[in-house]
Design a protein that fits this description.
The chain has about 230 residues and is of the alpha/beta class. It has a single domain, classed as Ribonuclease Z/Hydroxyacylglutathione hydrolase-like (Metallo-beta-lactamase, Chain A). Helix content is about 25%, strand content about 30%. Strand 3, helix 1 and strand 4 form a beta-alpha-beta unit. Helix 3 packs across helix 4.
Amino acid sequence: MKLIWLGHGSFRLEIADKVLLLDPFLGGNPMLPDEKRAEAIAGATHIFCTHGHGDHLSDVGPVAEELGIPVFGMVELMKYVADTFGVETTGFNKGGTVDIGGVKVTMVHATHSSATEGPHGPIYLGTESGFIIEGEGRVIYFSGDTDVMADMKIFHDLHKPDIGILCAGGHYTMDMKRAAYAAKTFFDFKTVIPMHYRTFPLLEQNADVLKAALPGVDVIEPEVLEAIEL
């Protein structure tokens, strides 16, 4: 299994024989050079989107259209993507699981917001979410954008994820301190990978606080387009 950071809250996950793009944010992402876009999406088979903010949604439709691949996410969000781009979508909801052949993805709760800009103001696109991804004998919790929630204990009890990909940049999501609290209070991760940080000056720029708070956990600060073997 390979996990490749595309910067911000975006990842490429190579698992089983699938290549998942998680919240692909390509154009406008200052961490991903334009000339690396093709490399980032090459061979992708599925797209999963957690919510409707531009730094998670803006490239979902265009990439799905370009590659001819399906998109999965919240029901209302998927209707918007299908209507806007004419691509194949599967809408599901929290507690629901999709099986894409050797990989199961369960949608779980997050606490954030979900909207895109329309001609007359925000267009609300269902509610925000995270994903539990199971494959190759591993279980990943992909938090999406969220704050700490007591619901996280339920995710642990039901799914027992050993890998946590946690938003940790602060301001718009939980910061490093809060992500560390979530990890040690509700989960038993072997590996934690921070995301949604370093992209913009407003966000936290390193994971020192997270690392210090999680002794015994392998906290990996990702580098853009450098594969992490899991």
